[in-house]
Amino acid sequence: MKNIIISIFLLLTIGCIPEKYSVSPDGRIAFPKKKSVYVTDKDVSFLKEIVSNEAKEVNWVEWSPDGSKLLYVSDAFYIIDRDGKNKRKIATLEEPVFLTEWSPDMRYISYAGESKTNKDEGGLYLYNIITEESTALVKNPVVLHKWSPDSRKIFGMRMIKHLDKTFKSGHEIMFGEIITVDVATGQIIPLAPYCSGGLTVIDYHPASQSIIFSSLDLFLPGNPITPDEEMDYSIYAVNITNNRISKITKDEPIMYFCLSPKKEKILYVVIDMLHELLHGELYVMDIGGRNKVRLGGNIESFVPFWVSEDIVGYQYWFGEGDARKQTVWLHDLKTGKKTNFTELVDLALKNKNK
Q1: Residues linked to residue 81 through DSSP beta bridges, in sequence order
Q2: Which tens digit of pLDDT belongs to each residue from 108-138?
Q3: Whole-model pTM above 0.70?
Q4: DSSP labels for 185-246?
Q5: Whole-angstrom Cα distance, residue 257 to residue 212?
Q6: Under 8 Å CB-to-CB from 343, ≥6 apart: which residues?
Q7: What is the CA radius of gyration of the chain?
Q8: Is the Cα dihedral 70, 212, 315, 40 positive or negative?
């Protein structure tokens, strides 16, 4: 179990995840493909390569909140207009980790970074788009984070050390503590007196003023870590005004989840903890945990995405070794129709190259 928790964290921090797909407010899908970035729509009625021939493969793309720009990562961070013009390199203080977030007011880009000299050190950094300066906001290792709608706060997961009392190795191990960070002052406030093992995703739900997060277990600081057989897998919600915590799912090891554009539904992957490759099943449900529907199984998708409130995308892997292939499917939640998005893209690329 310990190796599973470590593996999940590494998947998110060193980039060993499938390609990132990002959808703009008007439905434009951006995705990396080797050293390029493409933009299209759900029907692939057009396909435009807006970035090409990068120094390294592109492994992350993210639309700005208004859909006017794209942030992508290859050998460094870059911002580019949606039409492929005005490419701009972002100067960072430390080695960047690709998990990045635009502030809702588009003044900042936040990113997790690690020290160039000590990989055990790092923090949360802000890049000011206007002044083109990068500053350290939190010096403790912070990877997962989301902005408040008013761009005044960041909700993040800070890594802290605890003595390993579960596996009795005598070693210190890293677990996540959810915090709020005041962007103007840098003040850090722990959101609730809980720590999370195997924390993989956090998001903010404005209607309930809650942080939604997935965790492989939950415990109070200073208390023994819950033993394996009692680990409490779930998606949780913690209210930021009263620190009350509640469970949304029950007894499900969640690898990844994402909230729909209107924050009314949750798309999430339940992993098979006994399978070496972390096979999973994909589900969708209402934000409160009701009306759960299974969409697919035997997938290795840790980054499903929403195309619209009614259409989701997920990545399916099949085959073994060098023969393994990936297919991205789009699933219409109203009609149940599935579309092979990868096949449409490949066909469009083939026609463009004729």
Answers
A1: 69
A2: 999 887 766 665 567 888 899 999 888 888 8
A3: yes
A4: T--EEESSS-EEES--EEEEEGGGTEEEEEESEEE-TTSPPPPGGG---EEEEEETTT--EE
A5: 10
A6: 327
A7: 20
A8: negative
